[in-house]
Amino acid sequence: DAGVTQSPTHLIKTRGQQVTLRCSPKSGHDTVSWYQQALGQGPQFIFQYYEEEERQRGNFPDRFSGHQFPNYSSELNVNALLLGDSALYLCASSFPTVAGFERYEQYFGPGTRLTVT
Amino acid sequence: DAKTTQPTSMDCAEGRAANLPCNHSTISGNEYVYWYRQIHSQGPQYIIHGLKNNETNEMASLIITEDRKSSTLILPHATLRDTAVYYCIVSSKYNFNKFYFGSGTKLNVKP
User: Could you tell me what percent of chain B has a pLDDT over 70?
Assistant: First the structure.
């Protein structure tokens, strides 16, 4: 069973450009969350997708947007890249929270290392 | 979600128990304590979680104080492969996939 996969592994972009990162969730999972991890810091929650809609969002500007496809895979798009967007971008998948069923574990992918020059 | 406080780093000898503390004094009644770890250059990995009772699984034990204001993650026999950053997170079970990670504790297991 493949876990969470992300592509590409590494990416170098120039300030002002746009980037798209991709994530395939673990088999059976239909909720995808995206995190940004700057060097030396813990991951910061960007947003979460379920049923092809953004359900929750962290404190990130509108330059960060996403999409979820019918097969539950997801994309993270960042427009007008800034130097400060350089980070490891992590995707995590999980089952949805359903009343009566305790879900408590996220599975993280290896991340995409984005460098903005 | 309640915030957590963890030491920046800790050392542990290989084969000994590693005890990682976490303070979460503002935890509310419906919030769980979760522990994840992140080995260098990998995504975080779930370890264990608990509400108020002590928990144990194949990886670790979680001890939560009676007032739930602090907890300790115990790795009973640390190995070099346990060297990682350990994150203590407090969140309601309905927000477990929207975590607020702090800076965590860097555990250095030494031979």
Answer: 94
Contacts of A48 in chain B (CB under 8 A): 97-98
Nearest 10 degrees: Cα torsion B91, B94, B98, B104: 20
Q: What angle do CA B93, B94, B98 make, to 5 degrees?
A: 95
Whether a cis peptide bond, with omega within 30° of 0, leads into A8 is yes
CB contact (8 A) between residue B97 and residue A94: yes
d(CA A77, CA A58): 15
Taking alpha carbons only, the member of B34, B25, B29 closest to residue B5 is: B25
- Tens of pLDDT, residue by residue over B25-59, are 999 888 899 999 999 878 999 999 999 989 999 99
| Both tokens assigned to B15 | 């084969």
**Segment holding B40, helix H or strand E:** none
What does the block give as tokens for B16? 């000994």
Q: Is there a contact between B103 and A41 if contact means CB atoms under 8 Å apart?
A: yes
Residue of A nearest to B38 (CA): A42
DSSP output for A15-84: TT--EEEEEEPPTT--EEEEEEE-TTS--EEEEEEETTEEEEE-S--TTEEEEE-TTS-EEEEE-S--GG
